[in-house]
């Protein structure tokens, strides 16, 4: 009879360990932007953008632009913008001032008049 409580305890310990190992969220830590644009992107071409701060496995700030669809495409194309460009700095400032709800994306129209 002493075997059953030990087996249940061992099983519960294994479940807890599995849950804790999956709770780290490592997928978000990697860098998404391998190459970033160093040129100005006209704001009329941008639908929305996201900014990801430095993380444990990505040493740089990343700005991902979602461009407006072209040529009857159902989705916009995503491009990375260098955070060191003037436009990148302006978008980071807007993000800090306007993204009070911690939304994953921000419409470009909330930053600039288009």
From TrEMBL:
Chemokine interleukin-8-like domain ranges (all copies): 30-87
Pfam family, one: IL8
GO terms classed as biological process: immune response
InterPro entries associated with the record: Chemokine_IL8-like_dom, Interleukin_8-like_sf
Keywords: Cytokine, Signal
Signal peptide: 1-25
Keyword Signal applies: yes
GO molecular function annotations of the record: chemokine activity
Gene3D superfamilies: 2.40.50.40
SUPFAM superfamilies documented for this protein: Interleukin 8-like chemokines
A GO-annotated cellular component: extracellular space
Name this protein carries in UniProt: C-X-C motif chemokine 10-like
Source species: Carassius auratus
